[in-house]
Design goal:
Blueprint (H helix, E strand, L loop, with lengths): L1 H7 L6 H14 L2 H9 L6 H13 L3 H10 L5 H13 L3 H4 L1 H16 L6 H13 L3 H10 L5 H13 L3 H13 L1
Helix pairs in contact: 2-3, 2-4, 3-4, 4-5, 4-6, 5-6, 9-10, 9-11, 10-11, 11-12
């Protein structure tokens, strides 16, 4: 009825009103109507994008939320928090660290591009960050480049494998550590 009144009174082209309608549908759990209203908006503001993002995140449609989030040109702290909270609330802690992984990769790239010396401590911090973000491949690449590995570096990589259920790989690496 509310949507009908908006159309009848000629407010259906108002961005603020349309965003409010998306929010109303989302709060009622009518994701389909929220999506349809959102998609029919000729222009979308950061607020309307975040409203739809919130709708998806609250109603277990995290794939759609991530797709919308990735397509956003401008992102503020609110939309980052919506995505992180959506993943965390739905039992996906590794995905909740999406901002940390992107930031960590940027930092790692900065180190590489500016010829900053990567010592064992810095490499271990990178390994730990990649492990916590679920990117074991990146962690292993950093680990393999360490020429003078210490026990902390070895343990960080072993722990990464163990925490992600790769106990056999962790044990193999532990044996490599003992041999080294």
């Amino acid at each position: 009825m509310l949507h009908y009144q908006v159309i009848k009174l000629g407010f259906d082209s108002d961005l603020y009103v349309k965003t409010g309608l998306v929010d109303v549908y989302a709060r009622r759990g009518d994701v389909g109507s929220a999506r349809l209203t959102f998609e029919r908006m000729p222009e979308k503001s950061l607020v309307s994008l975040t409203t739809m993002l919130t709708c998806y995140a609250k109603h277990w449609e995290l794939k759609e939320a991530r797709s919308l989030f990735d397509g956003m040109v401008k992102k503020d702290v609110v939309c980052w928090n919506v995505m992180i909270d959506g993943y965390a609330q739905h039992g996906m802690p590794n995905e909740a660290l999406l901002g940390a992984l992107e930031s960590g990769r940027w930092l790692h790239s900065y180190v590489d591009n500016n010829d900053i010396q990567v010592n064992v401590r810095l490499a271990t911090a990178l390994i730990d960050m990649y492990n916590k973000c679920g990117s074991l491949e990146d962690a292993r690449l950093v680990f393999d480049k360490i020429s003078d590995k210490d026990v902390v570096g070895w343990n960080s990589m072993i722990l990464g494998y163990a925490l992600h259920g790769l106990s056999q790989v962790a044990l193999e690496l532990f044996n490599e550590m003992l041999e080294a």
